[in-house]
Q: What sequence folds into this?
């Protein structure tokens, strides 16, 4: 029983990060139909920038805020100089652009930062809390709480503000939204900014546990993408559930099957789910018009 | 005949590529150039199969390096563990890749768009994980040595021999691809690309045709994987990794979806560029990322179709 509890804790911690990356994928996909494979690089930038600002003597909270601002600025530049000029290109071409961007950002991180692994101090120390025989790091609770706060704030923003409604309208129908006077360009730019902020924050929260380096983004993008698809692309709820499920699957597979085959088990389950539900857990049925 | 027509004419295109392949070594100062050029043709062959799937049938695969892995490990494991003559595993690997594609393709190809992308990604990842962990047969993450290819008593060694083998392999693949494109199956595939529903209404057996091109593309990738392993003399699970799959997709899209000659250009770009960019040292990856983005932004239909269109419209 303590074993099971332990796997659930570690699965949820990792899953929360996957969920935030998947949420970033979903926001940008809804705004402009782009699968942004540079999403993982936002997580890396958040963590790495905080580490290096802190090392330069900037107080940690300020460093974290600055790191988020830097990441958002980079995401806006990505939209302005790479995605916007390619408007109207086909979906695969846009994906290749974001992959190019992720190669570029990883290369830039090597030059600006370095190639070593870095950590940040945990917010509330490293003494594990004992719960029912299992040990949980205080930082895991910070990650989970952070994820909950982000999801609730995002939900409130989208449901309760006028600009949030504009985002929903743009996701539903780009042309119709611009016809009723919504500045869809601003909505898309804003989606990139929010995705980057969420990614950067996830990177800052999880770095004390998983460490960070210039190349952590690739794997996170892959897992976040898988989580978003498992949940059903375009569904925010699906992204969160997909991320948590993927994290739990990996933890259970590593614990009960073999740690070498944990990714294999996770992807086998994803394949099985997609065979049964070809649009993911929460995806809507679509009708193709001829 | 204007430039655009040349690119669209199949015989002219194959002959043009053959002339390039034949003349290129005149400019090679060292064996290193033969090696890089051989790699270009090997990757072009794998990307060509993927282009048939993506450019004509409109189906994405983010796991195609998995099939390269099957071909690569076949020529490594066959002679080493099973004592087979070195050419047989090349054929057996292709057959195995076809069988795997046939079995996996049926359920996977029912998925659409990004769901298909994630399913193929998962499939490729599964193969890479198996190659990396079954160390008894594959040598695990460190990989294993690949015995030399021996044909009729002649042993294929050295970059120069492999340049000619790879070039010939690609040209044969290109000729076969052109044949497929102009066959009834090719026309059915293009119909599926434009609209699956419309194709079905017109009586195209959509599932069967998609499966057929998936199997064909797997065979291309497997043969290319075998050639890569034999050329390098050593393989690691990276041959079937996620990044390799992405690289293949990038070659197809950069060169031009649906363009056979474009596949060669895309492969050349992504094989040669990292080699030349090493002069930039630490700025290498930034430059590579910038080039990939710039090509896609300014030549969004891919290099060859965009240039052919530009040249064609000025001359026409």
A:
């Amino acid at each position: 029983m303590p074993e099971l509890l332990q796997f659930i804790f570690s699965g949820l911690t990792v899953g929360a990060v996957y969920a935030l990356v998947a949420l970033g994928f979903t926001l940008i996909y809804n705004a402009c139909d782009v699968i942004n494979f540079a999403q993982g690089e936002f997580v890396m930038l958040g963590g790495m920038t905080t580490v290096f600002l802190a090392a330069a003597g900037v107080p940690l909270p300020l460093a974290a805020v600055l790191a988020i601002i830097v990441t958002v600025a980079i995401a806006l530049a990505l939209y302005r100089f790479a995605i916007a000029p390619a408007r109207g290109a086909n979906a695969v071409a846009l994906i290749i652009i974001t992959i190019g961007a992720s190669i570029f950002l990883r290369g830039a991180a090597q030059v600006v930062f370095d190639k070593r692994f870095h950590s940040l101090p945990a917010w509330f120390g490293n003494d594990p809390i004992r719960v029912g025989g299992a040990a949980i790091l205080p930082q895991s609770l910070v990650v989970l709480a952070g994820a909950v706060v982000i999801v609730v704030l995002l939900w409130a923003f989208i449901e309760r503000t006028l600009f949030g409604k504009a985002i929903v309208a743009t996701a539903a129908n780009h042309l119709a939204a611009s016809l009723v006077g919504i500045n869809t360009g601003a909505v898309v730019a804003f989606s990139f900014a929010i995705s980057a902020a969420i990614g950067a924050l996830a990177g800052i929260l999880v770095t004390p546990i998983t460490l960070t380096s210039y190349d952590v983004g690739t794997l996170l993008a892959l897992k976040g993408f898988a989580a978003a698809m498992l949940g059903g692309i375009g569904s925010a709820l699906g992204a969160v559930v997909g991320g948590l499920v993927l994290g739990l699957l990996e933890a259970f597979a590593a614990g009960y099957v073999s740690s070498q085959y944990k990714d294999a088990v996770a992807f086998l389950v994803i394949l099985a789910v997609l065979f049964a539900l070809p649009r993911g857990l929460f995806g809507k049925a679509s009708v193709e018009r001829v | 005949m204007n430039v655009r027509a040349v690119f669209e004419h199949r015989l002219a295109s194959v002959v043009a590529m053959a002339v390039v392949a034949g003349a290129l070594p005149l400019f090679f100062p060292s064996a290193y150039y033969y090696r890089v050029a051989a790699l270009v043709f090997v990757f072009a062959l794998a990307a060509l199969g993927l282009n048939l799937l993506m450019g004509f049938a409109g189906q994405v695969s983010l796991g195609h390096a998995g099939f390269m892995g099957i071909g690569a490990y076949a020529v490594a494991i066959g002679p080493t563990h099973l004592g087979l003559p070195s050419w047989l595993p090349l054929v057996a690997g292709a057959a195995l890749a076809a069988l795997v594609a046939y079995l996996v393709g049926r359920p996977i190809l029912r998925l659409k768009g990004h769901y298909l992308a994630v399913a193929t990604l998962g499939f490729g990842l599964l193969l890479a994980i198996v190659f990396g962990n079954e160390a008894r047969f594959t040598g695990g993450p460190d990989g294993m040595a690949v015995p030399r290819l021996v044909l009729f008593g002649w042993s294929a060694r050295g970059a120069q021999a492999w340049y000619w083998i790879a070039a010939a392999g690609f040209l044969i693949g290109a000729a076969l691809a052109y044949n497929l494109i102009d066959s009834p199956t090719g026309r059915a595939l293009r119909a599926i690309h434009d609209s699956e529903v419309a194709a079905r209404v017109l009586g195209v057996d959509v599932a069967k045709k998609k499966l057929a091109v998936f199997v064909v593309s797997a065979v291309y990738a497997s043969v290319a994987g075998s050639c890569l392993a034999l050329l390098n003399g050593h393989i690691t699970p990276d041959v079937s990794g996620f990044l390799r799959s992405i690289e293949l997709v990038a070659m197809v899209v950069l060169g031009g979806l649906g363009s056979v000659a474009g596949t060669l250009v895309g492969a050349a770009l992504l094989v040669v560029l990292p080699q030349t960019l090493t002069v930039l040292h630490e700025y290498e990856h930034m430059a590579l990322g910038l080039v990939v983005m710039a090509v896609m932004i300014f030549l969004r239909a891919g290099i060859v179709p965009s240039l052919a269109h530009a040249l064609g419209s000025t001359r026409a």
Notes: The first strand of chain B starts at residue 144 and ends at 145. Chain B touches chain A through 50 residues (CB under 8 Å). Confidence is low (pLDDT under 50) at residues 1-7 of chain B. Chain B is about 75% helix and 5% strand.
